[in-house]
Amino acid sequence: MLRIAYHQCYGHPVEEGHRFPMDKYPLLVEQLLYEGTITEEHLFSPLSVDEKYILNTHTQEYWDKLKNQTISYREARKIGLPMSDSLVQRELIITQGTIDCCNFAIEHGVAMNIAGGTHHAYSEHGEGFCLLNDFAVAANYLIEEKGYRRILILDLDVHQGNGTAEIFEGNDKVFTFSMHGKNNYPMHKEKSDLDIPLEDNTTDQEYLSILRKHIGVLFKEFQPEFVFFLSGVDILSTDKLGKLGISIQGCKERDEMVFQSCKSKNIPIVVSMGGGYSPQLNLIIEAHANTFRVANNLYF
């Protein structure tokens, strides 16, 4: 059975008029339940992550600032969200959800977090709507608790996974791959193990051809034992922050390519949703829902 991390706090409200669409998370669940792709049985509600796992990835100083709500105004501006205890608690629950998904993926081949993909969080600060880096914390959990030695983070959000790249710089147990918009946030990009910057208005055909080539090489040469997939739908041509030219069908084919690559080699995969900022919320929901549909159809 496809197991999906979801907690009611994922829809945590932010200031009125804020551009970050927190409401997409409960709406995505409602859509998947309504159409019958999933039932309530597929969903599980994570608890809060243990501090020891946070400190395997993030610095004590940064964690103390989050925990004690002593983030400065300037630091909060960089994160881009109004800080609160409930927002930090939300991030702790999302991060535990991704860890829990690791264990379900080991058992079932795949597991998914309705939220997550907080790849702009660095070891010592947050930015770009990200406080804690859920993939990084979960990858370190797999290394420390499960003995994994070859983990691939496949970041296909339109924005470079700069925080993830910084956290795992020089770590030969984790390979960071980011395929992102060349002329998009962050303007200063970190160095992933492999970065593929894409020109504005990249089409489905170009995008899928590039991805197919690099996935083939990565799986052959790095031979990952576990994959994290950041399935951002801000690659869509309709996205107001994206700048690429990908259709909903192209985004779906991207997901199929990733899942098929992992399933054919019996590599567990954990998926977090990442970004999506199309003006029409129904397009965001449809593109995200396709990721769940593809996983459920292919694995179960």
Automatic annotation (TrEMBL):
Where does the Histone deacetylase domain start and stop, copy by copy? 18-280
Q: Which UniProt keywords apply?
A: Hydrolase
Can you name one GO molecular function term for this protein?
Answer: hydrolase activity
Matching InterPro entries: HDAC_classIV (IPR044150), HDACs (IPR000286), His_deacetylse_dom (IPR023801), His_deacetylse_dom_sf (IPR037138), Ureohydrolase_dom_sf (IPR023696)
CDD domains, per this entry?
HDAC_classIV
Q: Which GO terms are recorded in the biological process aspect for this UniProt protein?
A: epigenetic regulation of gene expression
SUPFAM superfamilies of this UniProt entry?
Arginase/deacetylase
Superkingdom: Bacteria
Q: Which family does it belong to?
A: Belongs to the histone deacetylase family.
Query: Could you tell me what this protein is called?
Result: Histone deacetylase
Q: Tell me what organism the protein belongs to.
A: Flammeovirga pacifica
Organism lineage string: Bacteria, Pseudomonadati, Bacteroidota, Cytophagia, Cytophagales
